[in-house]
Every structure is written in structure tokens, then in C-alpha cells.
Design brief:
alpha/beta; nine-stranded mixed β-sheet
Length: 279
Amino acid sequence: MHARSRATVASDNATWTGMVPVGDTELAVTDTGGSGIPVIYLNGHMASQRNWRRVIAELGPQWRHITYDMRARGKSKRSADYSFATSVNDVDAVLAARGVQRALVVGWSYGAFVGAHWASRNPDRTVGAVLVEGAQPYDWIDEIDIEQMRKLWRRLNFLMVLLRPTGLAPRMTAEQMANSNIEAGEIARERALGPVLDNITVPTRYVNASGSSLGSKGDGQERIRASLDQVVQRNPNIEIHAKVPSNHGSILRKDFRTIAAAIRETATASRNHPGPSTR
């Protein structure tokens, strides 16, 4: 996997930015370079790599920060495949393009599910994982009306079209967004996600938000978060680092310091963890 030659490098900090071809698409990637532990950031479902800027600034240049826009998000190109399996495989593609063998994965919301699956499948390539407000095993898909979800995305489609030039909305159809959300619900099922989390053998830290999120009702979001209690009881490699005051949508903006602290703690735990070294 090779990055295109039209990549640009900032002379002051050796940051690389460019397009990485993957299958039928191209992913917009940024790599700060350097000799620090590589950290790859996995975005929320509708988010872009710029959502991580506060976390990255808090950690500083002693880490190697790799961010990218998922398919049809941010500056990345459209694709015919927006499946969850493809999202996980794209992590491999980005790391291969940047010549990185092992990395600490950090995911928020949808990206936390991607990070959990990648860490579970690739223990020898994972320094550790930080999962922010996501990858919580709960059958929430049974509590929603699937057809109403499809109608909601169709109603939101006009707004999505208006927001696309700003990079704040994916360049996906309403049907594609609905299907992706429904698939995420199936992946979140306890019987599906539970074994994935039980199989994680690297240090993993959760940072959970508080209150509700877009589309949640009553105490639904808190019940989803509570599902992690059994996870940490079963797997000693997984801990809840913190529960912060901010909600699902604002956690990267308001509690970036806590997320950065979880990354530092995970890297430290990895140094003392049985298995390959962190470097």
C-alpha cells in the first residue's frame, strides 16, 4: 500500500499529509512522524480527523500522531463499501502506508468499536487501546424502530447535503448512513461484542461520558455504559479509566485532558505488560 506522491510535508515539524489509496477509494491521512509511540485515532461515525486536535495538542510532539478520515468523511473519497469490516481493515491499510508495525489505538464512538475489534484481532501489533464512549456491549438495536431510523436519515439528508462542503457530514446517502447505523447496532450486541472484548490481551482503558446522546431516551445511555461492569470483571486487561461530566458528543472537546491521560496510562501499562515491547 503506497501513499500518493501529491502528499505534502510541513518543513517545520515533518508532518505528512496525503491520500492513501485503498480499494476503490482514497483516505485522507495525517502523520506527524517522529520517534514517539505511534497513536492512531479512529473517528466517530460522522466525524473527521480534526475532532482529535485538542487531544493531540495535549499529548504533544513526543508522540507520533496518525489521523485519517474514514471513507466519504472529511477529505476522503467516496466508496461502494461502508461496511464495518472495511472500516477495521482500513486501519491496517493506513498503518501499512505509513510503515507502522505497532500502534496504540484510540477510538471514539463508532471508532471505539473499530479500535476494539482491531486490538482484539491484532494483539502483537497493538500497544494498547483507549476506547472513548463506545464499544459497550448492549442490545440497543432491539429498543429502536428500524423503519423510523431510516425515515430519520431520509429527513436529515437535505441537511447532510448542505453540510458536506464544510466537512461536517459524510458524503453518503441517507440509505447508506441508515444501513451503517443498523450494522453498528448489530455489532454492539452483547453476544457479538462481548467475545471480542473478552479476547483483548493488551492494556485497554475506557473513558465514558455522562448523560444522554443524540437519539437516546431516558437513562438508555447510562444503561449502555453500565454494560462495561461485567466486561472489566471478566477481563483484567480492561479498565474504566474515567467517567467524565461531558456527554457523548462533546467529550473530545471538553474532556480531552482526561483522554490524553488515559493514553499515557495505557502506554505505561503496556511497558509493564507481558508480551512485545512498546517500541
